Amino acid sequence: MVSSGAGAATTTQDQPEVPDSLVDGSTLTPDGYPIAHGTSFLMAVHFTDDGPDARTILTYGQVGDPELPAFLPGMKAFAAKDWKQVRFTRADILEDPGLEVTEVSA
Predict the structure, then answer these.
(1) Which member of 2, 14, 22, 98 lies 3.0 to 4.6 Å from 38 by CB, making a disulfide possible if both were Cys?
(2) Side-chain-side CA neighbours of residue 13 (13 Å)
(3) In angstroms, rounded to a whole number, what is the distance separating the alpha carbons of residues 3 and 24?
(4) What is the value of pTM for the model shown?
């Protein structure tokens, strides 16, 4: 769920000016619906006979500052419906090209 919040956003970040709506009682503007808040992380899981098959997606950027590089990638992936596969099994985890292992001993 994402929403313009119609002025109900609780963020301390400055909000952009929102153009007048196209229809009275609506937040639809000539540029679409302005988004101020909503679900930031989604996970969908399908339980199969071979174990869980899960996907995740981050709907917003990882930071609140639009000047930082991590601001847009999550939103672009969300718009592209680019869900990420969740690795559950040991074999899946070990196949992850980004895997880093740190051994800790007492």
Answers:
(1) 2
(2) 11
(3) 17
(4) 0.55
Largest CA distance in the chain: 65
Residue 56: CB partners within 8 Å, gap ≥ 6?
A: 41, 42, 43, 44, 83, 84, 86
Cα–Cα separations (whole angstroms), residue 27 to 2, 39, 78: 13, 18, 21
**HEC readout, the chain:** CEECHHHCCCCCCCCCCCCCCCCCCCCCECCECCCCEECCEEEEEEEECCEEEEEEEECCCCCCCCCCHHHCHHHHHHHCCCCEECCCCHHHHHCCCCCCCCCCCC
